[in-house]
Specification:
Layout lengths: L5 H20 L6 H42 L3 H8 L9 E2 L2 E2 L2 H5 L9
Antiparallel strand pairs: 1-2
């Protein structure tokens, strides 16, 4: 068999993937209009998911590295959890005496709407 160029190999791979999708999801029995809508939705979703993956991968990797370094450095789980929770107006917040309950947090707001 003759060696394929990179472009020919990529085109063959794409045709095989398209064939696999058509056979797996039954696209080959669709009418031309149904095929048009299927491939339009497929391409749109593929583009959006790929864009989101590329856009947010760097941020998520840095977050994972940061949280892994917190656990490895020995700062403890308490500091890692407190970094994840909101600093103010939290229904469940970390304080000096431990975690305050929702009832204790909301206790001061019982008559806040009364003039």
């Amino acid at each position: 068999m003759s060696s394929l160029t990179t472009l020919e190999a990529w085109a063959r791979w794409a045709r095989l993937k398209k064939y696999r999708i058509e056979v797996t999801y039954g696209v080959y029995v669709f009418t031309p209009m149904e095929k048009f809508f299927f491939w339009t939705i497929f391409c749109f979703l593929f583009t959006v998911i790929s864009f989101a993956a590329i856009l947010y991968t760097q941020r998520n990797v840095f977050l994972l590295i940061r949280y892994a370094s917190i656990y490895v450095s020995g700062d403890g789980v308490t500091n890692a959890v407190s970094n994840l929770l909101p600093k103010s107006n939290a229904a469940l917040s970390l304080s000096h005496s431990g975690i305050t309950s929702l009832a204790e947090t909301m206790g001061g707001a019982t008559n806040s709407q009364v003039p």
